[in-house]
Structures are given as structure tokens and as C-alpha cells.
Amino acid sequence: MANEAIQPNVLPQNPEKATLEGRNKYLGFWFFLGGETVLFASLFGTYLGLRNSYDGGPGPQDLFHLDLVFIMTMLLLTSSLTSVFAVINMKKGNFKKMLTWMWGTVILGLGFLGFEIYEFVVYYDQGLGYTVSAFASSFYTLVGTHGAHVTFGIAWIITLLIRYRKTGLTLANAPKFNTAVLYWHFIDVVWVFIFTVVYLLGVGG
Amino acid sequence: MSNSTAASKKSVLYDWLTTVDHKKIGIMYFFGGLFFFTIAGIEAMLMRIQLMFPEMGFVGEQTFNELLTMHGTTMLFLAAMPLFFAFMNFVVPLQIGARDVAFPFINSLGLWLFIFGGIILNISWMTGGGPDAGWTAYTPLSTTSGGHGVDYYVMGLQVAGAGTLMSAINFLVTIVNMRAPGMSMMRMPLFTWTTFVTSMLILFAFPALTIGLLLIMLDRIFGGAFFDVALGGNVVIYQHLFWIFGHPEVYILILPAFGIFSEVIPTFAKKRLFGYTAMVFATMIIGFLGFMVWAHHMFTVGMGPVANAIFAVATMAIAVPTGIKIFNWLLTLWGGRIKFTTANLFALAFIPSFVLGGVTGVQLAMSAADYQFHDTYFVVAHFHYVIIGGSVLGIFSATFYWWPKMFGYRLSETLGKWFFWLFLIGFHLTFFVQHFLGLMGMPRRVGSYLDGQGLNEMNFISSMGAFLMGFAFILLVINVLVSRKNTDNVQDPWDGRTLEWATTSPVQEYNFAQTPLVRDLDAFWYEKMEGDGRMKAAEPLDDIHMPNGSILPIFISLGFSILAFGVIYSQWWLMIVGGVFMFSMMFIRSIKEDHGYHIPVSEIKKEKGEG
Asked: Which residues span the membrane (chain A) (predicted)?
């Protein structure tokens, strides 16, 4: 039965894709990420169109500090790595270890989110209100949408971790953890683009 | 774990509100779509009355702007797409031999988001006027429009659009993962194929609309500066975002119709579809090119001759795969034993009507000439020729074709043919003259015209045609009501070729007692010709696993709608209430594992008449 814990000796090779429901979720989530890609591409396009429209307000070179953004990048990249370890442990059947690594992802994600909020507060104090210029609006919308995705991802993973803290790995919850990790990788990749297009291009270009 | 007897205790209303059965969802999409089709049709009538004579005072200019905006928006998002979704939902799982869709819960959520989005959009009429910036909502017209009309437009489409995106993902996964044994991709019926490509287009096009609408919302409600030129904003960005969505959208509206005609024409010509492979690849090429041509809506914006030339050539290239399809339909008919049923009449009338729309499409694609055509009635005539001549004729063809399977009775052919001829004549009467009105310089989206400019007669003819279409539509409604007694010969009335005709009418909850084994393209026809006329089973008779219904989709949609109203009226508390409600419903869905129930073999045998 789907809701019984898997014994290590009868564990399927890929518990997240062992059932039709699991395969559907996996494929459906990839399609969803395809749509999300267009969503972020639209925001990137808008930002690129407006990134020089400061209209007298502060611009990237006044605001951005690569050291802060570098720390954020490292936090998020590491959080993706811990989620990879979690999935490896899931496939090995080490449910406890999987949960531990996932908590690591959550903590690193929260660290990233904290720095992002701090960053926004600092920029606001330096005069970059949302309504100041087209650059400000497009910057906050692009980075803020990513931040909202991070927030949602953290809430999602915490929900799974608490809901399944005692159940052990099942064919019903393995796909859930797997899709959450997939989502987390996606927002990580989006951040890599934000780091390049927004921050590196803003300071250097 | 409950069983099916528990499910049958529910009241009929609660059953329909909580259903995750793709067939019931399809039927609800159908009536939802038909309802909004009627509203948008009435809006069109009101506009044609206003334009019947020069300088009429039937509706004011502001009302006219609202009517034209809501007519377009409603027809595209709330009528045509849901009507196609109705047939996709009902027919595609049957055509591929599946018991259900991949995500029954998400399917239901998509339906309710569409219904709530449509209601939000139309509530605007009662709260101080509808949106008035055109269905395209170009900035800065939309960002500076007074009142709350455009806010309703933005949030209504946001809610409905979220549902559309979910449904598209559901169709994609269903078609990839849920096909019966033997149903390879290249054995899928063409309607399933076009559903697949259409869903791809929705998946990659709708997020661009989401962002376009989001930016309008941020500008209007939260003081953003995206489209405020004084603060460095750029209004053309919105046009790009909108048409990156908007052009694929027109293929989203036509490809399912192509699929329907590719089912109807072979059935009534008694021939296998000519050039099946070419049809599949033409569909994919149209889908791909649909993303490459958005800027042909913006020739007059001033992108420069190079961009205009590239987009002009790319646009004309779409005529090639479309032409392939037209010739394949003609060659399917060639030498066939053609039956002129109502469904087939719509398909046959589609070919010349749509070609007319295609020809004016190529004319409009010539960017130099487009400076003359732009924003005139020539454009209006063109897109009504492709949308009515393609999509709407397709919807009506599908209605007559699949009605016996969906509702268990056949629509009257006599009334159907009256409906067909009156509608077809009305359609050409309305829109053929609009080509000339456009070439004479009559601008679109303007609520009146002056006397003595030679526009009077053709506008009058156009309005008469619109009345004829409206009258014909009433015949369809009458047909639906009076044909209920035709309950004989509903299982396979057209001597069908594809799997949906191998099921009972009305279809059992589980579609197929045993998953069918597919041995060829046109699987059912193959068994009729080479086998014993019944589908071979791919599995022994066994208990069937079914998903449980759920009320959560309505609650999630309700939460999203409350959030939308919070945004429309800038009320933070309402946004928070709606958001919290929506996310807690999603939370419940996430933590409550639902393993569905099983229908026992004994009951299946009883329903098969073997018990």
C-alpha cells in the first residue's frame, strides 16, 4: 500500500518515481518550471529595459555591494547542495538523514531571506523607494518575486518536514520531497541569473 | 478507505461542486463557456445596434469602450477557451484510453478559478463600469483609466489565467503519461495532438500575460513606475509582454479547432485522415512559429524596418504549415463518401471561411501595407474571420459531433442545419463588408461615424448579419432543449473511428472497465475493420481505483477571489484575509493524504450487464 513505510530491503530504486502519481507529479512539475521560466524571463526583460531609468534616484552603482550579494549567493547555492544530499539519502532510504539535510536547506534559505530583507531596508533608507523610478520598480519586482518564491519554498519544505517527521519514507511522500527540491533548485538557478544580470551588470556594466 | 457507495450518498449539487471527474468538469466548462459566450454575444449586439446608423445615441461612448473591451476579453478568455477546454476535458482522456486525467484535483481547481475569474470580471458592470482600455489594455491608457474597471480586468484575468495554466499542465501530463498500452504518440488522434500543442502554448505564453497584468496592477495600485514615462518608464514594454502572450493565444484558439476538424472530416468522409504525420508536424510548426511573430501586432510602433521585415517574413511563413493542413483536409474529403451532417457542414464551411481570414492575415503581415490597415475595420474583419470562421465553427462542429457522448442524446439535425445556414450567412454578412469599411478608413474601437462618408450601407448590412447570428444561436439553444427525446443510437452514432466512441453513452465514471489495447491509428475503426468491433482489453477485470472528490478547489478559488477584491479596492486587510484563506486551503490539501477509493469488480460487472 502506498502509505506504508518502505523497508530498506524492499525500497524501489527511485521511490519518487515508483508510482504513476509520482511520475505525474515529477513531469507536471517540470512543465510548471517551464512556465516559471517564462515568468522570470518576462521580469528579466522588463528589468533590462528599465535598468538605466533612475530618473534622478539612486542607481545600481550607488547601491549594490557585491560582498553582501556574494554571501547571499553562497548561502543559496549551499542550500541547494544540502537538498541534493537530502535526495541522495532519500534514494538510499536514510529518511532521518534526509530530514536533517532538508532542515539545513531551510536554515540556509532563511539566512538568504534575512539578508535580502536587510538589503531592501538598506536600499530604502538610501532613497530607493518602490515608486521612485522605473529602475526601482523593476528591481524590486524582479528580486522581490524571487524572494517571494524563496519564502514559498521555505514554507513548503517546513510543511513537509513537520507533516512527515514521524512517518518514514513512503511512496506517497517521496514525490513531494522530490518536487520541493526541484523547486528549490529552480529558484537557485534564477538567483544565479539575478546575480549576473542585476548585480554584476549593475556594478560593472 | 471509503467505497463507491459512500460517494453515491452525496446530494447532486454537492457532487457537482466537488467532482474531480474529467467528464463532469468538461460539462461544467461547457455551460460556463456557453454562459459567457451569450453575455459577450449580447455585448456585440449592443455595439452593432450603436453602429447601425451614423451618429447613433444608443449607448454612450464610455459604455461603447466598455462593451468592446468586455466583448473581446469575455469571448477569448471566458467563452472560446473554456468551450475548447470542455471538449478537451471530456474527450482527450477517452481518446487516449485513460481512466482519468493526471491531476483530477488540479483539473477541478482550474475549472473553479475560471468560473470565479469570469464572475470577478463581470461584477465590474455592477460596480461603476467595466474595463474600458480594450482587450489588449495598452498602457498608458490602461494605467491612467479612471474608476476600477481596469482593476477588475487585471484581477479577473489573473484568477482565470492561473486556472488556465494549471489545466494546461494537467493536459500535458495526461497525454504524456496516461496513454493506454499501444497508444504511441504517433497513434494519437489529431484532437489529442492539438490539445497537447495548445497546452504547450498556454504553458509558455500565459506567464507573460501574468507579468504584463502584474505590472499594470503594480502601476495602478501600488504606485509603480513601469509605464510612467515621467519616472523613466517605458510603455512599449507592455505591448511586447502582451503580444508575447497574445499571439500564441490566437493559436491557442485555433489549434483545438484544427483538431476538431481533423476528427470530424475523416469520420464523415469515411476515410483515414490524409497526411496524418504532416498534420502533426504542421501543428507543432504552427505552435513554434506562433511564438516568433508577436511584433507583427506592433508594426506601427516604430521598431524600425529591420525588425518589421523579420517579423513580416516570419508571419508569412506560418501560412505554409496552415496551407499543408488545408490541403490535407481537402484530400481527406477527396473520393470520400461524404455525409453532410451538421457537424460536418460546420467543418466544410470552415475551410473557405478560414482561408479568407488567412489571406487577409498574409495581407496584414506585409508591414508596409499594415500602416494603412492598422486599427481599421480591416483588422476587425480579419480576426473575426479566423476566430469565428475557425474557432467558433470548430466549437459548433464539436458540439454537434460529441453531444451524444457528452449528454446521452442527439441534437436535431433539421434544427441544426437551420442553425448552421443562418449562422454562416449571418457571419459572412457581418464581417465581409467590414473589410471594405476598413479599407475606406473606418477606425476600429470608435463608437460612431459621420453621415455622408459612404459608410452607412455597409454598417447597416453588418448589423443585420449580427442579428442573424444572434437569431441562429437561439435555434441552437432551442435545439438543446427540444432534442432530449433522441436517446436512441447515442453510443456510436457517426460510426466513429477513435476510442471515445468505444465507451458507453453516457460514459461510465471509470471510462473503460478494462484499459483498451490500441493496435493502430484510429483504434476503434481498426477493430471494426480487422477485429470484432470491440476494443481488446489490455488488462484483466479488476477493482478500479478512483480519486475522491473535494470541496477545496472552490475554497481555494474563493480565497484567491477575495484576495483579488482586496487588490481591486486597495484594502490590505481584505488581501490578507483572502491570502490566508487561500494558503490555508492549499495547506490542508498538502498535509491531508487522500488515497481515493476502489470500485469493486462486482459493481463493474453489474454495470456491464454481466452481474
From this structure: 27-48, 68-88, 100-118, 138-162, 182-202
CA pair distance B322, B335, nearest whole angstrom: 22
CA distance B570 to B564: 10
How many whole angstroms separate alpha carbon B312 and alpha carbon B485?
53
Report residue B545 as a C-alpha cell.
481505483
B586 close to A (CB below 8 A): no
Confidence of residue B4 (pLDDT cuts 50, 70, 90): very low
Q: Check if B102 contacts A (Cβ < 8 Å).
A: yes
Q: What percent of chain B is modeled with pLDDT above 70?
A: 98
- From A37's Cα to the closest Cα of chain B, the distance in A is 8
Work out the minimum CA distance from A201 to partner chain B, whole angstroms: 19
Q: Indicate the DSSP class of residue B376.
A: B
Residue of A nearest to B593 (CA): A172
Instruction: Determine contact: B271 vs chain A, CB below 8 A.
Output: no
> For position B594, what pLDDT does the model report?
83
Phi-psi domain of A38 (left: phi exceeds 0; alpha: psi -120 through 50; beta: other): alpha
Percent of chain B scoring above 90 in pLDDT: 93
CA angle B128, B130, B136 (to 5 degrees): 150
Given CA atoms B183, B184, B188, B193 in this order, what sign does their dihedral have? positive
Chain-centroid distance of CA A192 in Å reads 11
Query: Is B253:B197 a contact under the CB 8 Å cutoff?
Result: no
Does the pLDDT at position B5 exceed 90? no
Considering only the C-alpha atoms of chain A, give the largest distance between any 2 of them, rounded to a whole number of Å: 66
Phi-psi region of B114 (alpha: psi -120 to 50; beta: other; left: phi over 0): alpha
Measured between CB atoms, which of A3, A24, A135 is closest to B177? A24
Bigger pLDDT: B215 or B9? B215
Spatial CB neighbours of B123, under 8 Å, sequence gap ≥ 6: B152
Domain ranges, ordered by start, for chain B: 337-487
Alpha-carbon distance A89 to B95, whole Å?
A: 41
**Cβ–Cβ contact B331 with A under 8 A:** no
With beta carbons less than 8 A apart as the criterion, state whether B511 and B524 touch: no
Q: Please, which pLDDT band fits residue B3 given cuts at 50, 70 and 90?
A: very low
The rounded distance, in Å, linking the Cα atoms of A34 and A39 is: 9
- Record the pTM: 0.95
Chain A nearest-CA residue for B227: A134
Rounded to an integer, the average pLDDT of B328-357 is 97
The partner residues of B536 in beta bridges, in order of sequence, read B517
Q: Are strands B597-599 and B516-517 parallel, antiparallel or unpaired?
A: unpaired
Inspect the interface and report whether the beta carbons of B203 and A141 lie closer than 8 Å: no
Across the interface, whether the CB atoms of B225 and A43 are under 8 A apart is answered no
A152, closest residue in chain B (CA to CA): B583
B243 vs A contacts (CB less than 8 Å): none
Residue B536 DSSP symbol: E
Shortest CA gap A181–chain B (Å) = 16
* Run of H or E including B135: none
Which residues is B517 bridged to in the sheet?
A: B536
Rounded CA gap, B176 and B545, in Å?
Answer: 20
Count Cβ–Cβ pairs < 8 Å, chain A vs chain B.
119
The minimal CB distance from B176 to the residues A27, A45, A132 is found for A27
B415 in reach of chain A (CB within 8 A)? no
Question: What is the average pLDDT across B320-334?
Answer: 97
Say if the Cβ atoms of B205 and A132 lie within 8 Å. Answer: no
Which residues in chain A land under pLDDT 70? 1-11, 205
- Which residues of A are less than 8 Å from B224 in CB distance? 130-131, 137, 141
3-state DSSP assignment of residue B313: helix
> A42 and B103: CB-CB below 8 Å?
no
**DSSP assignment letter at B390:** I
Domains and CATH numbers, chain A: 15-204 (1.20.120.80)
